[in-house]
Design brief:
about 15% strand, about 240 residues, 7-stranded mixed sheet, alpha/beta, 11 helices, Rossmann fold
Length: about 240
């Protein structure tokens, strides 16, 4: 399954939530591949995989690429990455389904249980490649007026694109005391059934995870983000008893 966590704006928390999902799936015995399509190399930098010879620029241009394995565990889970490249934004003439074609052609869709794609926070060729390659799309917006408007605009573009992927919206970094304008209510009234039933809380643990990917994912964090995991994976994961 291919999953993209995205928005048309940067700074919404999409990379942080992508790290959480990748680490959670790996720790629960799934084989995971991260594909970094952001020329800012944010998720690649977290995993200390910047300026690598094997990168998503090769993938986008149809050349063979070998993912870097980050970790594996006794449950059979593993985490690998195809890092980004600083020159990725120079590629402006890529057809929008090149990633989908290459992931299948190079055998990655058979090799991994989940492929998480991290595009830039802009509407460009890399983002469109990520979207057209995905079975599941999660649009993440923080609980702020700016992120709400960016999310609404981004969903409008998705509707115009005729995508067939499953879609959900996540309101991120929610704190009731910091939401006097009831932005959460605006998310609810605008996005309806596409929206996660509860906002994702402002969690210090997520920030720690983005600073140290080996930070232990505690049970209480799993519980609070369970709906996010289930929606992102289309209900295909198994939870430990």
């Amino acid at each position: 399954m291919n999953i993209t966590i995205t928005n048309g704006k940067g700074g919404t928390g999409k990379t942080t939530l992508g790290i959480f999902l990748a680490e959670w799936l790996c720790s629960h015995g799934y084989k995971v591949l991260i594909v970094d399509l952001d020329p800012n190399c944010s998720i690649s930098e977290v995993y200390k995989m910047v300026l690598q010879d094997q990168n998503s620029k090769l993938l986008l241009t149809g050349r063979p690429v070998v993912p870097y394995k980050i970790k594996e565990n006794e449950k059979g889970g593993s985490l690998s990455i195809i890092p980004s490249d600083l020159d990725l934004d120079m590629i402006s003439n890529i057809i929008d389904v090149q990633v989908k074609i290459q992931l299948k052609k190079q055998g990655f869709t058979e090799m991994y249980d989940y492929i998480l794609i991290d595009p830039p926070g802009t509407w460009n060729a890399q983002t469109r490649n990520a979207l057209y390659a995905s079975d599941s799309i999660v649009v993440v917006g923080k609980c702020s007026p700016l992120d709400f408007e960016a999310t609404k605009k981004f969903l409008g573009k998705l509707e115009e694109s005729g995508l067939e992927s499953e879609l959900c919206v996540a309101c991120n970094s929610y704190n009731a005391q910091l939401d006097p304008d009831n932005i959460w209510g605006r998310y609810q009234s605008t996005f309806g059934e596409a929206l996660l039933s509860a906002p994702l809380p402002r969690l210090v643990s997520l920030k720690r995870l983005s600073e140290n990917v080996n930070y232990n994912i505690r049970a209480n964090l799993e519980i609070r983000l369970r709906e996010f995991v289930e929606k992102a994976t289309l209900g295909t994961v198994e939870w430990e008893a």
